[in-house]
Structures are given as structure tokens and as C-alpha cells.
Amino acid sequence: MNWHHAGIEVEDLERSAAFYEQIFGFKARSCLKLGEEKIVFLACGSIVIELIGNSEQITASSNLHLAWEVEDLSYWMDHIEECGLKPLEGPYSLDSGLTVIFYKGPDGEVIELVSQRTGVY
Q1: DSSP code, position 58
Q2: DSSP 63
Q3: Domain named VOC: which ranges (predicted)?
Q4: Looking at beta carbons, which pairs linking 59-65 to residues 24 or more positions away fall under 8 Å?
């Protein structure tokens, strides 16, 4: 079994796609329509996100988050701050040697960046 993608329902498909493209470097891979829903698949390396357009108010699940491993956490923190996004939590250095930081996406989804490099913060 292999991981295929994560799906996120979003209020504004264009806004959410721009968020992931501009901040994290995702590129649109395909667009489709399923009934009344517009769907965009975005990819960055092996990570694929499905954005599902939904004009209704979205309530993000508090038990769901996306976690991406990055080599240079300091670079990503600076880049994300330059894009106007502040951390939701962290950064935290864990006993396991990982450093993590959390951000909030445009529809309330939580995005966690993980670095295995010790001594980052």
C-alpha cells in the first residue's frame, strides 16, 4: 500500500490553491469537476493535496493536520513569515531530536513542519 493524497474541503478554491502554491511551492497537477464540486490536485515532490471546493462554511476538524518534513526549518520559518503567516504554535524541540512548528491554513487546517536536524531552535 502507498500513500496517494490528502483531501481538504475549502471555501475558496482559488485562494487555497494560491496559498499552497505561493507559500509551499505546490503546483497544480490536475483539475476536475465531480458533480457540483470543483477539485484541484496540487503536488510538491511526492506530496499530493486534493482541494475540494465547497461554498459552504468549512469547519476544520481539530483532529486532522498535515505534517511535512523539511531539511532547513529555519529557512521555511523565515519564508513563511515573509509571506505574512505567523506560527500557530512552536517551534518546539522534542526529546526525540525533532523540531516542530505549526501553522494554520486558509480553511483552518493545521500544517506542521518537522525537522530532524537537532539544535535548530
Answers
A1: P
A2: T
A3: 2-116
A4: 59/108, 60/107, 60/108, 60/109, 60/110, 64/109, 64/110, 65/102, 65/109, 65/110, 65/111, 65/112
Question: Is pTM beyond 0.90 here?
Answer: no
- Rounded Cα distance between 101 and 119, Å, is 14
What integer pLDDT is reported at residue 54 of this predicted model?
83
SS3 call for 71? coil
Same domain, 53 and 65: no
Contact 106, 19 (CB under 8 A): yes
Which of 38, 58, 78 is a domain's end point?
58
Question: Could you identify the residue written with the cell 476544520?
Answer: 60
Q: Report pLDDT digits (tens) over 90-116.
A: 999 998 899 999 999 999 899 999 999
Contact 104, 110 (CB under 8 A): yes
Q: Which three cell numbers stand for residue 68?
A: 511535512
Does one domain contain both 47 and 70? no
